[in-house]
Specification:
Elements: E1 3-10, E2 20-27, E3 30-38, E4 45-48, H1 56-75, H2 94-117, E5 119-122, E6 127-130, H3 140-149, E7 154-155, H4 161-179
Antiparallel strand pairs: 1-2, 2-3, 3-4, 5-6, 5-7
């Protein structure tokens, strides 16, 4: 099952304990329902699509069917553990799934912006970035300079974006886990 968020709006300044967002959730290529959260630590809200001329009872019935299918799909996903420690023993539910999609979307946006302005590279010591300054974007000359000075570094700008995103995300999680194991 493919679940996507479209018409996604996120408010960083209003996101306190949870993401403050609203989006249309698409399931297997079809508009399915609306999802939102006010960003104050409460649960996500889900509601049926509002289609002109559609009977509200019919819309609610379709919504209930889609929600049941999505929850069944979530039950098949690998269990997860808290980033604060613990075993992977918790079931994935729709809220966790949507939160993961949002995290990936926001990380992707942040990484795209960083890769345009800077060269990002990973060494044994950590992840680093370097650039020319505020106005000039990173270019091949800067990538070559970083590669010359750090021959063993993995330069994220040289990877396909999906691979760079996965590497960046994996590196960030591994580092967080190492730093917070004690």
């Amino acid at each position: 099952m493919k679940i996507e968020l479209k018409s996604f709006k996120h408010s960083e300044f209003s996101s306190y304990e949870t993401h403050c967002y609203e989006a249309t959730v698409w399931v297997d290529g079809k508009r399915a329902f609306y999802a939102s959260n006010e960003g104050h630590g409460g649960a996500d809200f889900y509601e049926p699509l509002h289609a002109e001329g559609k009977d509200p009872k019919e819309a609610r019935s379709e919504f209930d069917v889609v929600m049941a299918k999505v929850e069944t799909h979530c039950a098949t996903l690998p269990k997860w553990g808290s980033e604060f420690g613990g075993e992977d023993t918790m079931d994935v539910d729709l809220e966790i799934l949507i939160g993961n999609i949002i995290n990936k979307m926001l990380t992707s946006k942040k990484l795209k912006k960083s890769l345009k302005k800077k060269v990002l590279f990973i060494t044994e010591e950590g992840i680093y970035e370097t650039g020319y300054g505020q106005k000039k974007p990173a270019d091949q000359n800067l990538i070559d300079m970083v590669r010359e000075e750090n021959p063993d570094a993995l330069i994220l700008n040289s990877l396909a974006f999906d691979e760079a995103l996965q590497t960046y995300t994996d590196w960030d999680l591994e580092t967080y886990e190492k730093e917070n194991k004690s």
